[in-house]
Structures are given as structure tokens and as C-alpha cells.
Amino acid sequence: MKAFNLSRRDFIKTTSLVAAGLPFMGALPAYAQTPGKKLGFALAGLGNLSTHQLAPALQKTQFCRLTGIVTGHPQKAAAWKTQYNIPDKNIYNYDNMEQMADNPDIDVVYVVTPNSLHAEHTIKAARAGKHVLSEKPMEVSVEKCQQMIDECKKAGKQLAIGYRLHFEPNNLECARLVREKVLGRTKIIDAAFGFPMGDPTQWRLKKDLAGGGCLMDVGIYSLQATRYLTGEEPAEVSGFTTVTDPVKFSQVEESITWQAKFPSGIIARCSASYNASGLNNFKVSTDRGWFTLDPAFSYHGIQGVRSDGQQINFTDIDQFAAEMDDFAQCILANRPTRVPGEEGLRDVKIMMAIYESARTGKAVSLA
Ligand code: NAD
Description:
Mean pLDDT: 92
Oligomer: single chain
Shape: globular
Low-confidence stretches: 1-33
Bound molecules: nicotinamide-adenine-dinucleotide
Number of domains: 2
Helix content: 25-40%
Largest sheet: 9 strands, mixed
CATH superfamily of the largest domain: Dihydrodipicolinate Reductase, domain 2
């Protein structure tokens, strides 16, 4: 299965709407004519992403509304209740999520907790009869990803992963440039994402909650880019990790690089770090040109340039609003999401292979 399930027609529709300065709408199905049809979203985990990105993005969506929250902190519940006008009956904690089954205000649970809790919260939501959007990385093991897929299937509910860049016009344009060989046949992809990590006490540095270090958190963006640009799955990976600050990085890797070989012969060279600046880009080199995005993975300001001098600079959108609106439309139209659980599972499999290679010093075949 291709990493980007986007038809040429959808792509043109999406990018031309964006290029025309119109809000992202994707392919509008018939029910979109029905005014007022919005799905209720509950955010599970009210940390940074929910507070600063998802809740504001929900206010900009066409097909979603923030109707519920799941939190372990009564003070946060009180603040969100006031700010977003959330009734008491739609406020849950992690231990009573099953009671959502009786709540028609909530159609979708967006799981925004630390990585190793995604399966637990996804499964609780699915068993309560809700569709689930889980943040990346999907989980910390292949087995837990599979459980999430199985439970959502059993419940007859959709499961999507928060891969916002599948809705970002500049990344979509780059996928088109590769797939349509606009600047030639792709040979080498370089991709990198990272930043110096602050707070040394946070869960991202704890193996049991994060599952790994910078690879799981930000390296996944480079991995995703190599897959959605090429539409191919890596056949072989080799990687290595380093730690230069053994106190801060006592449980997870500080930096990682890996190479991946794709069936068509494309080679990707990727890196991620929790202790390096200036890593937020990719460059695609072809047999007769190249193009870059820099920054490539940010919430805003993504842009790039091509070897023929053209700019890659589609209108900035709210990627989270686009991602949530797309999921709501998929549910309403009963069509599959382009970022299903299977897509998240593939990334986790590949990341585990990269870790295995780093551990053993040998390339790992994924064929
Ligand atoms: P955060 O630490 O700011 O928030 C995590 C929330 O989970 C907090 O509200 C915390 O109270 C809650 N939580 C519940 N149980 C917990 C436990 N046992 N230990 C610690 N916290 C617990 O993290 P965040 O930056 O909001 O990230 C949350 C998820 O979103 C992660 O999976 C992360 O990878 C993902 N994320 C995705 C993007 C993106 O661009 N798609 C960006 C940032 C984060």
C-alpha cells in the first residue's frame, strides 16, 4: 500500500484550493452541503499539543467541534470547562472513559498522551464505541499497534494516526514532484529533524513512556517523508545512535542516523537529534536536478526551492484543522482515512528495525 493515498485529482483539488488562498477543504462529499453537521471530538491528554495546537485548531474546523475532554487533573478540567464551554457530563478521566459509551456528544477521541499510553487510551475509546485519532508515534511496539488496529476493527470504528503532513500542501507537492518525475528520477533523499531538548525530567526522555528517543519523536518525520515522497517501503535499513550527555540521555538515544534502501534503488540518509539545531529539512536529488523543503516539518512556514529556480511555497494552512476535518469527513462519508493505523504500524516496524541495526551493527532487511 502506498504511503500517500492521494489521487492526482484530489491533489490538484487540494493544492489549487490552497494556492487560490481558500481554506483547505479536500474533496467535498455531498453531505458537506448539509449545514451544521459536525462531529464531536474529545481530547484525551491536555498537554502542550492539545492546549496550543489542537483545541485552537478545532475552532477553525468545518466538520468537528470540541465537545469533551479526558484528563487526570481536576484543575485543568475546570479551566478547559470555562474556556471551551464543556459541560460536566463530557469531562472524563482515564479511569472512566468507558462511560463515554452513553454519550452521543462524543464521536471521536483524539489520543494525545505520552507514546506508551496510546494503546490503552485508544482501546478504551474504541470499546466505548468511538472513532480514534491517535498521535504519532502510534505506540512503542509493533504488538501494541496491532492491538489498537484489532480493537478498532472489532468495534467497527475508524483509527487514524496524527500524520499532519499528509495534509500539508508543500509536502504534497514534493510527493508529486517525485512520483511524476517532474525534475527527473529520484536517487538520493536527505532528511533531518531535531532540536536541543529542554526539560531533562520530561517523559520524552523516559524509555517506558516514550519507547525510544529522538527517532520515535522527531525521526519519524524524516522516515515518513522518505515513504510519502517515494510511495515505496524501505527494503533495508542500517542505523547508529550516539549519546554525548549520558546523564540527560541515560534511557534513550540523543542522536541517530540511518540509511534506507528502497526497491527502486533510491537511497535515503536520515538523521534526528535531541541535541542539535538546524535540522528541519529534506533534499531530494534526482538524475537531472533537485529540490528541497526547509523548513519541511514545522507547523507553519514550510517552503522550498527547486533546481529550476521555482519556489515551492503553497499557502500556509492549519495542518491540525485539515487533519481533523479530513478524518471527520472520512467518518461521515464512511470512507477510509489516508492515515490509518496500518500506516502507523509500518513506521513503528521500521523504527524497530533501525534500533535493531544500531544495536547489532548490522543492516536489517525489511523485505
Ligand atoms: P505533553 O507532555 O505536553 O502532554 C501529555 C499529556 O498527557 C499531559 O497532559 C499529561 O498530563 C498527560 N498524561 C497522562 N498520563 C500521563 C503519564 N502517565 N505521564 C505523563 N503524562 C501523562 O506532551 P505533548 O507534547 O502534548 O505530546 C503528546 C503526544 O502528542 C505525544 O505522543 C507526541 O508524540 C504527540 N505530538 C505530536 C505532534 C505533532 O506535530 N503531530 C507534536 C507534539 C506532540
